[in-house]
């Protein structure tokens, strides 16, 4: 079995990829059939497919007032009791997280597993609760990030754009304008290399152009003004379109999809590394893709992804992968849903919305993952799919489901889930769960961090 097949099923970051490839090389002398069994344990067998998620123990929304009245009112405003439960859980988990972070990797600056992710959580807490003590914590953590930048990667989640963007916002909030401007200027210095694509820069979210673009979007969201002129976003989208057209032609895929993207020689589909994350950004208004290319290039590419849907309503991690296994934000319906809802907004065709609703069903059935409570591949990240549906429809069913997933998250650690490699980080661990519980306090303003617009 090729290494990449192992990695793509079980992971979404280069770090994990390296770890896995080390494991694979260390057992390379095994007989092939034995190797197959070892690698596949926990990954590909039918039995294991069923044990990737825990059975959803909650009754589904039934439309009755009794079903939701202890959670939120008819306008979607959380009850004081439920909001109080969320807030006290947030405090409790925060103190666990602070304790746990004492043994975290001091040199990891990233938003995904490192200090920028923790800083982003505190910035979020300060935005929602309005407490300056949280802003001070954000400053402490992002300052650590600035001291150990990768000087290699350029994205929000895994590169230097995240630390610079979060620091710019934190300094700005603290009235330290000069430091904020310095961070912004350093962030924009990366722009040229992103557009030019030095060193075969990919296009996906975690390590590629979209991941840099998301940091510029973050700045404008947080400053609530067009601090970064849209032409910066437009130039990146031009480069992404050119890259996608080029690869589609090179691989003779034009008949199927006018745009095509790869990461580590795979055509990933999910939000973190793949096509749907890229198309979600290309369909945003103001990014200069324009009506003609939205119809000629993006729409048929979105439609090609739609054809990859499994009978269950879930989506594969890669083109050509027929195993319906993963229900994560990084791979599968919980990440694809954002592209579908955006396609529904942009093109107005009902079928995108129908597919998005089906993603919601998949998440409800199979979204309480054994991998834990995190954002990237955990229950909290999956619950954001319900919030996206709720914001799109205002149907209380989706808010109800998000609340039930929050109840699951509030029983953190009681379901026998696996402990992630970075158990307190934003994208794999407890910080992400806290981020989600905080977002649920204001469902209509919620956004999957570093991704959703
Ligand atoms: Zn993941």
From TrEMBL:
Pfam families: LANC_like. It is an enzyme of class 2 (transferase). Zn(2+) binds at residues 330, 376-377. Keywords: Cell membrane, Cytoplasm, Membrane, Metal-binding, Transferase, Zinc. GO terms for molecular function: glutathione transferase activity; metal ion binding. One of its GO terms (biological process) is peptide modification. SMART domains: LANC_like. It is found in: Cell membrane; Cytoplasm. It catalyses: 1-chloro-2,4-dinitrobenzene + glutathione = 2,4-dinitrophenyl-S-glutathione + chloride + H(+); RX + glutathione = an S-substituted glutathione + a halide anion + H(+). Its EC number is 2.5.1.18. It is a peripheral membrane protein. GO terms for cellular component: cytoplasm; plasma membrane. Belongs to the LanC-like protein family. This is Glutathione S-transferase LANCL1. It comes from Megalops atlanticus.
């Amino acid at each position: 079995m090729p290494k990449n097949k192992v990695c793509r099923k079980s992971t979404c970051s280069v770090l994990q990829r390296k770890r896995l490839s080390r494991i694979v090389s260390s057992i390379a002398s095994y007989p092939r059939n034995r190797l197959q069994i070892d690698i596949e344990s926990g990954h590909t067998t039918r039995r294991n497919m069923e044990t990737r998620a825990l059975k959803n123990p909650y009754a589904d929304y039934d439309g009755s007032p009794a079903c939701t009245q202890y959670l939120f009112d008819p306008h979607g405003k959380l009850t004081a009791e439920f909001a109080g439960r969320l807030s006290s859980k947030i405090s409790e988990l925060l103190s666990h997280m602070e304790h746990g972070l004492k043994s975290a990797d001091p040199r990891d600056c990233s938003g995904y597993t490192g200090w920028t992710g923790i800083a982003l959580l505190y910035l979020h807490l300060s935005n929602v609760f309005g407490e300056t003590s949280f802003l001070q914590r954000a400053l402490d953590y992002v300052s650590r990030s600035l001291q150990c930048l990768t000087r290699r990667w350029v994205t929000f989640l895994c590169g230097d754009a995240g630390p610079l963007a979060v620091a710019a916002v934190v300094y700005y909030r603290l009235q330290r304008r000069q430091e904020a401007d310095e961070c912004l200027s350093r962030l924009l210095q990366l722009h040229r290399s992103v557009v030019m694509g030095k060193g075969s820069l990919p296009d996906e979210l975690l390590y590629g152009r979209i991941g840099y673009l998301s940091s510029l979007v973050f700045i404008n969201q947080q400053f609530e003004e067009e601090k970064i002129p849209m032409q910066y976003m437009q130039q990146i989208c031009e480069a992404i379109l050119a890259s996608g057209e080029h690869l589609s032609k090179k691989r003779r895929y034009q008949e199927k999809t006018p745009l095509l993207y790869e990461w580590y020689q795979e055509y990933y589909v999910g939000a973190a590394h793949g096509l749907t994350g890229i198309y979600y950004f290309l369909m945003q208004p103001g990014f200069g893709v324009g009506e003609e290319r939205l119809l000629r290039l993006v729409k048929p590419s979105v439609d090609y992804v739609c054809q990859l849907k499994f009978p269950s309503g879930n989506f594969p991690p890669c083109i050509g992968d027929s195993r319906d296994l993963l229900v994560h934000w990084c791979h599968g319906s919980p990440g694809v849903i954002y592209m579908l809802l955006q396609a529904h907004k942009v093109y107005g065709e009902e079928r995108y919305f129908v597919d998005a609703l089906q993603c919601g069903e998949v998440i409800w059935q199979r979204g309480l993952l054994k991998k834990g409570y995190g954002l990237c591949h955990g229950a909290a990240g999956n619950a954001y799919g319900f919030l996206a549906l709720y914001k799109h429809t205002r149907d209380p069913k989706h808010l109800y489901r998000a609340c039930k997933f929050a109840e699951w998250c509030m029983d953190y650690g009681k379901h026998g889930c696996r402990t992630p490699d970075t158990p307190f980080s934003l994208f794999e661990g407890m910080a992400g769960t806290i981020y989600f519980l905080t977002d649920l306090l204001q469902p209509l303003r919620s956004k999957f961090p570093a991704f959703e617009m």
